[in-house]
Amino acid sequence: MTTIRLVRGDITRESVDAIVNAANSSLLGGGGVDGAIHRRGGPAILDECRKLRASRYGKGLSTGQAVATTAGELDARWVIHTVGPVYQVSGSDPSLLASCYRESLRVADELGARTVAFPAISTGVYRWPMDDAARIAVETVRSTPTAVEEVRFVLFDDRAYEAFDRQLH
Ligand code: ADP
């Protein structure tokens, strides 16, 4: 059984085996949680991202996929980078957002991570409505077989925290 915990705060302050990054497909950094992870984690993370670009991901990481690097100076062993879908009012595919959580857990299992922290993927610049994103996140984690013992959703503000809390209770 995987325990789900909610924390309100900055994911770069968490002490876990793996911190999930809401990256963009370039893997070369961006704003929001991505920027915060690279700032606090230091240059080792970007170095490894650049190497991944040069070797396996010349065209970038596809939406819904996940890949791990070192966590640099963060209090974690790995950062798992995943690319959330951009929300479009005209129609967005929830299975791509679910895939971010599922693929990140698959990578976490490959690494042997037992504690994993997730941000609310796609709910910032990518504009996915918070309640729907929270439902997809919680349902996907609950229905994905994994050896991860604790999934910690680290929510940056009250609005995100409350949305996830409603899904759990
Ligand atoms: P995306 O491009 O996937 O939307 P963002 O980084 O813009 O990614 O936002 C994803 C979520 O992460 C948003 O809810 C945002 O408030 C939150 N966020 C931003 N910085 C942090 C942080 N340091 N720790 C945890 N969550 C964060």
TrEMBL record:
In terms of InterPro entries, this protein maps to: Macro_dom, Macro_dom-like
Write down the PROSITE patterns for this protein, in alphabetical order.
MACRO
Which part of the chain is the Macro domain?
Answer: 1-169
* Xref: Pfam families: Macro
List the PANTHER family: GANGLIOSIDE INDUCED DIFFERENTIATION ASSOCIATED PROTEIN 2-RELATED, MACRO DOMAIN-CONTAINING PROTEIN
Designated name of the protein: RNase III inhibitor
Species per Swiss-Prot/TrEMBL record: Streptomyces curacoi
From the broadest rank down, the organism's phylogenetic lineage runs: Bacteria, Bacillati, Actinomycetota, Actinomycetes, Kitasatosporales
